Amino acid sequence: MSEQEKRRYVRIHFKRQVQLDFFTEVYDKCQVKNISLGGLFVNGKFPHKVDDQCYVNITLTSKTTYLSFKALAEIVRQDDEGIEGIALKFISMSFESLVLLELILLYEPREKSSDTETEIKLPTDLPFEICEEESSIPNKDNPFLERT
Description:
- The chain has about 150 residues and is mainly beta.
- The chain has one domain (about 5-110): predicted glycosyltransferase like domains (Thrombin, subunit H, Beta Barrel).
- It has helices at about 5, 95-105, and strands at about 10-15, 15-20, 25-35, 40-45, 55-60, 65-80, 85-95.
- The radius of gyration is 19 Å and the shape is globular.
- The termini are far apart.
């Protein structure tokens, strides 16, 4: 069975940077090759071995938003089809990081960002408008507010 057939989760190309913290060494601005619900592949040469653990930190920002994905991961494979790097399997993450990961997996394939861009891009074909401020719904028209 090939590696592709063994994969449990669909991977998407994710040309973003990640910080890897191996407890004794921290690597900033490492290039992610792909990501899935189960883990990610990071390009580069690392002295660490299979089963070594690290913290993964991906930060996504926009003008008004700062989102941070953090997870504990372990190396499950080194090098991938001739590409130098490490395959990391997620071991643990917060609920908030899981939700952000699911959003990344949902919207990343629709983005047209450059390889180094980290700004959050929302789809342009949404059936509603995205406002920077909260909605201002008058109390009399809001069925969810108590009337006095």
